[in-house]
Structure formats: structure tokens, C-alpha cells
């Protein structure tokens, strides 16, 4: 598949050169790339899921290494791996139900073992695991009939339940790939629509005459605020400008064009203003498994100020930003140091960096980190496309979206 | 991507350029200079590692990122090495719009020759970017290109746009932080046209001569000595034909730019484009190698920094606190310290109690115990045994330093040099396996020699004889080499003698910071310089301030200052005549006319008058009270 390899290389280069940045864009591109990888993957006769998983892992490892700061890439890779596993499990489960313990079903399972009885036992165990597994809280919720805004279930275990039980093996072999691609399409759609899903909940959170503070610019926050405005809520927004990139200025422009009362303040004025604020709404770069947030620099300060004044601190983020890793994991690169020229004019300070005359060691150092880490205890609420959640609930969402085997994509595939 | 779209739309609404020409670039993979000798005898300069990636990668990555579609790499010296590298690198096999094409030539001895060769090949069809292969930048060319194109439409004589950057030269040494001499440019502030360019301002006499016509023809003109020439030019195809027409043009700046500026027959114009937030610099000498390495480590060149794998071929680096970059597989002893702003390459082992600060260390190096490395650049596969001390040195691939070696600031050790035990290599020495070339040496010599800088020309045979220690014998490592001369190397390598003219320049262009004594010297000379011209006024605190001003703002104020000194002298002399008995009325008249002729204010006048009164009061005995009374 030279064309797929070219696609992968192209994307890896773009990630490396930071041509694709931002969680949303990189998540979307990753999902689309993995979809084409899977659709071009030749399916072996046995162990199809294994082959798919290996292929995705091989690509995923490259992608993650290309820009480790962009955690969304890794999230999507793990989501896709999880989708493959789920589809595989569900098809096995249906096969077992339909055909019983026939020899034919054994071929489709992990073909690493040679002894057949053990293999079928493993298949049984897997099937049992899938059936015995406690239903996730989310699927429980979705069973409630009138959940209007409930999104598509990420695991399509429920979907394949209704599929014909007398599935032929030949059909199934094609079906696995097909199902996986279907599920990835759903994932892509989820990523596409996450802003709408989140902003649908805006009216429940933003009330009349409230004062809302945000920092920098996040597309999710913008859509969230605009959605509330469209529902004729009138409220005011304080925008901290978000030095040194001053994305807050852009956000202020966008909000004003939508007719929202906006006040721009400096980042350093946040503490002074927070007592007048009813709610802080910010975007995030990634949500970690412990409920901590990696967000644009300055947000930790806002969170601390909010806690001091008991102002709710709300983080809005699409579920593709949900990262199954903990912030102390060695694989996680928490920060990215950007160019100091955002802060200082090189020409003005060039005499401070004349290495010829100050003993050769630089006396001036400029640090320009991109992100902050906000510990979970400072966050009051997460609003994702599946609804509002507590920080302590994140591990549960993660169990729904990811399987534990995939947490470290790297090590498995190299071994 | 956006860049390219911009292009397309630009050319589509332009009827003349219906056929879109791809943006081309000419990359000179040869510096046509000898600054990096002896290293460049063995490897071309563009392939030398800069923070563990070859310089040419930085340039190519930049060209690719600004939307250049065809890059012509002009190789001259060591062309085979450059070509081999390019063939192996990702640049050649990269899919997409960026293509790299090497051009080889063996008889070019200057940038001028190179451009003539390229003209004869006829590959350039539109505006092109001219850079040398040692340029580091992260600037976006979009704006500059657009400006250039618009100017071209209005005025076809605008053939070139030079990229400049604000950067203050040191007020003491009058050299930029990159180790070049300060450049004096006259720029029209409205049109950004370059009117005057001088890169070798005479240090001893601090004035320049501007053509009177220059002042007559332009209403305003800014003189800058705080601009850095980035050596990134956007040229029109005419530039190539100009080089062909004027076959004596060799150097891009010294001949071409100055030639165009002086020549008013053709009326070609050069414009400047100043960049503010982005970075651009060229590695011209060892000092700029040091400075730019530090800039990269301090991330001014983002995203071309070690922990972003911009070129793809280098290993993953991790950035720790305080600007320490570490490859994943570094074998560091627990007691070894890596201090701020250092970079350690993959597979390097560092022994107990070693201290590394402000240094770049390449791949697969072995560093023993109690080694101190400070401000140094160590390339790949270097072995440094116990108790060595390196400060501000450059150590190339495969060098072996045996136990106890001390490298003083500014030492350059070229490829595979071996240094025996407990040898101290004196400051600013250059050691190479190859002997210093004499004039009738290989033609490689020819390729490298800068035809016009006769001073840096290779030494004559006599100077070879003067070489302090020629020791080509690969001694057994333990044999302590006791030479009568101060320098001894047991190991392999020649110490190059510094060329006669070059000795003065050695500290200017070295990796080592300027030694404190030199700085002191400069401080003193700066003071005495002013002292000589204004002896009388030096005691005045007020003019002391003035003195500082004139120092920093440069040339025009100096003239003013001289005037005021003269004025004070004159006033004093006139005042003395009152004391000598001349009618005060006349003297008042005289002082007034003095004031008018020197164009001074009343305050100046009163000040200097007061000064002369005080001075005469100091010198005169008390008996002269009477005459004061007269005056008052």
C-alpha cells in the first residue's frame, strides 16, 4: 500500500513541522488517516482483528512520536484500537451465540496459540467477558428512552446485537472491516459535531444576566457562548487576553460580532475581576485520566482565583480531548516551549544576548510555555459532548472509550 | 499551504503572469571563504552539524516552509559529499512540491562565479530566493515576496530585496553579536530603498563619507548601524545577467551590492525588508556558530529546535528544565551534572563527577570522569578521557582526548585529531590532521580561497616553516612528547599557525567570548579616543553626559560635539581677553557673534561663559578681584 504509506508520511511530516496544530484538526486528520489505513489493510484469513490492531499501532506510534504534545492524536489512535477490539468482540460473541463452539469460529480468534482447546477456551472467556462485563453507566443512561440529546454510543456493541446471528464466516471476515470503518466514520462525525453537541447544553449552564470569564480563545468556548446568546440569554463576558499570543482579542471580536457584551481585561487583572464573575468557562488542550486539565498558559491562575472566590470553574472540551494517560506518565509531554519572540523583540534585546562579551554564557533566558496543568480539584465541571461530568468521573468515561491494553501504544508495537 | 494559495491568487489576478512560475531558490552550498578552516578542508561547511543537525538541513527546511518549490543547491568544494548527503537525505525523496536539485561546478571560486554558472544553465525563470547553505531562519517570506513583486510591477529596475533585522552591535568592539563588523546602511525610510552599504567601516576613524548626490536626491534618509544583514535576498532574474555582464563581480555584498549602488547609469535599485518577530542569521565564522547555536537552544528559531523533529532524521530529544535537551539514550552517571542550556546527543555516555554547561554534545560520545566541559561544541563519536578540561572549544568528529588534556578557549580540533596525556592546547589554536596548505597546494585550496580577501590567503612557505610545531608522527599515545617549543602534542595532528594578518582577528571570530582584558582595552581606548579630541571639556560633568550620547548614536553627533568643544574654547579665549583689558562691550559683541556662528543657544553660551569665569577664578590669584568687578 504505497499510497497509504505516502499519506502517513505526509501527515507525520505535517505534525512534525507543526503545520497541523490544535486538538480538533489533528484529531480529525488522525481519524481520517486511520480510516484509510484500515480500508487499505489486506485482511488475512485468520486473526483479522490482530492484523488491524497491528497496522493501526504501527501507524499510531509514528503519529504520536511526530508531535507528542498533540495528545489528541494519541487519543484517536487509542479510540480506533478500542473500536477494533469492540467490533471483534461483538462479532465473536454473535458467532458463539449462533454457531456454538464450532471449529470455524476458532480461526477468527487470536491465532497465536496452537492448541485448539485452549484457544476455544480463550474465545469463551472473551465472550464471557464481553457479556459479563458490567454495562457502562453511559449505556445504562442511553437505555432511558427520552434522552433526546444523547449521542451515539461510542462502542457499537449494542449495534451488532441485532445483526443476523447466522452470519457466515466469509461474510464476517468482510464485515469486521466494514464495521470498524463504520464506527470510525461515526467517530469522525462525533469529532465534527462535538462543538454543536457541547453548545446544545449551553442554556442549562448560562443563566440570565450572568457574568462569565474566559481566557484566551477556544473555539468550543466561543460556540458555547454563542449558542447561549442564540437562545436569547443575555449575559456579559470578560475575556482575559491570553498573553503572549493574545488570542483573547480574536475571541472578543467574534463575540462582539454575535452581539455579546464583552469586556477585555489583561491576564493580570483576572484576580481583581473574579469577584464579579458568576462562572469561569475555558477550553482545554487535553483532559487527563485523573481529571486534570492541560490548558493554554494562564488558566491555572484563573482556576486558583476562581477557587479562592468560590466561582464555578467549567471546562468545555470535546471527547477527543479525553486522554487515558495520567499527567505523571512518562509518555506524556505536558508542555511545549514556544519561540521567545512572542514575548520580546529580538532586536531590542540583542545586546543582552551578545555572547561575545558576557563570558559566553547567556544571561537572558525567555521561557514561553504553551500550556498549564490545572489539577482536578480546581475544576468544578467538565462539559463534553456527552454531557456534564465531575472530574472524578473521568476515569469512567475513559473506561468507556479506551481499552486498557492500548494505553501505551508505543511499547506494544515495538516489542 | 496558505502560502501557496496566496501565490496562486496573486498571480491569477495579475494578467502579465498568467503562466505561474514556481518559486525558485538558489542555495550556495559553499561559503567561498576560509573562515571555517581547518574543518572545511575535510568536510564542506554546509554539512557541519549545528546543534546536531547539518546546517544545510536548516536552510532547506526553511526554504521548504516558505513555499519554495524548486531549490538549486550549488555545490563547489566537496561537491560529492554534498551530493551524497542530499541523495541520502529526505529532501530528495520527499513527495510533494519541494524539489532539490544539485548543481555541480569545480572551477567557481566565488559567489559571483556560482551565479554566472547558474545563469548559463538557464534554469531560473522568475524571481528567486538567494541564500547560502548556512542560513538559519524561521521567517515567512510571504510579505517580502509580495512587496518585491509589487515593486517590480511599478519599477522594473528594483532587482533585489535584502532581508535585514534589527540587532545592536556591541558599542565597544563595533562588531555584531554574530562576529561580523558592524554594517552601515543608508535606507530611504519611505520606500525602503537601500542607498548605501558599507560593511567594513573604518574602525580607527569613526566617520563615513556619503556621496553628496545621495543627500541631494533623497529628501530623507536613515543611517543605520544597528541592522544585521541576514543574507537572504529575493532577486529578479536580472541579477544573474548582471553578474554575467560584470564578470569581475565576485562577492555578493562587497562587489554586487556596492556596485549597483554606485552605478547610476543603469539605475538598478536594491530594497530592504526588515523582519521583526522572526529569526534569520547566517553562520559566517566561529563566533556566529556559537551565537546561533545558543539562539537555537534558546528557541529563537522555533520550530527549528532540537525537540521538534523538524528534519525528521534526528532522534527524539526531550527538553528538561533550564534548557537542557537530552536524547532518550544518554548514559549519564548519577554524579555527573548537566547544567543549563546544554544538549546531549543519543548514545553518549558521561562519567562520574563530570560537569557540562552551555555545551552541545553529539551522538555516541564517551566522556570520562571529572571532565569539565564549558561552552563547547563536541560533535559525534568523540572520546574524552578522565580529567579533561574544555572551555569554549570546538571538537569535531572522532577526536580522541587522552586523560588530563586542557583545551583553552577558542581551540578548534578538526576531525580525528588525537591529543596525548596532560597536554595543554593554547587558546585559539587550530589543530588538524592535514598540514596547513601552502600556496601551491591542491586545487581544493583554489576552491576555498576567497579571491579578494588577500589577508586570509593561505600562508606562504615561510610561514609553514614558522609553524610552531609540526608533528605529523602518530606517536604512541603514552609517549610523552617533549618538544622544545611550548606546544607539544603526542598524538596525531598539526597545529596550524595563525596567519599574520589573521592573528588580530582571532579573538573576534572565535567561539570563545572576548577575553576580559580585550574588553578592558576597548574600554580604555574608547575613553582616550574621546579624551584626545576634547581634552579641555573632559572635566565638565555636563559634557561627560554628552560624550556618552555621541558614543551610542554614532557619527553625526560626534561632529556636533566637536563644535561645542570648539565653541567653549573660543568663548574662553575671548573671555581671557576681558581679563587682559579689552573693553567688555566688545567682548560681549564678540561672544554673541561666536554664538551665532556656532549656532549655539543662549544657555550654551551662558554655560561656557560661566565655565570660563570659574576656570579663571581658579587659576587667578585673589588679587584680580577688581577686574571681575569691572565685568559685573
From TrEMBL, chain A:
Keywords: Cytoplasm, Initiation factor, Protein biosynthesis. It comes from Elaeis guineensis var. tenera (Oil palm). It is found in: Cytoplasm, Cytosol. GO terms for cellular component: cytosol; eukaryotic translation initiation factor 2B complex. The keyword Hydrolase does not apply. Residues 146-158 have a biased composition (Low complexity). Gene3D superfamilies: Translation initiation factor eif-2b, domain 2. Component of the translation initiation factor 2B (eIF2B) complex which is a heterodecamer of two sets of five different subunits: alpha, beta, gamma, delta and epsilon. Subunits alpha, beta and delta comprise a regulatory subcomplex and subunits epsilon and gamma comprise a catalytic subcomplex. Within the complex, the hexameric regulatory complex resides at the center, with the two heterodimeric catalytic subcomplexes bound on opposite sides. Residues 146-172 are annotated as: Disordered. Residues 160-171 have a biased composition (Basic and acidic residues). This is Translation initiation factor eIF2B subunit beta.
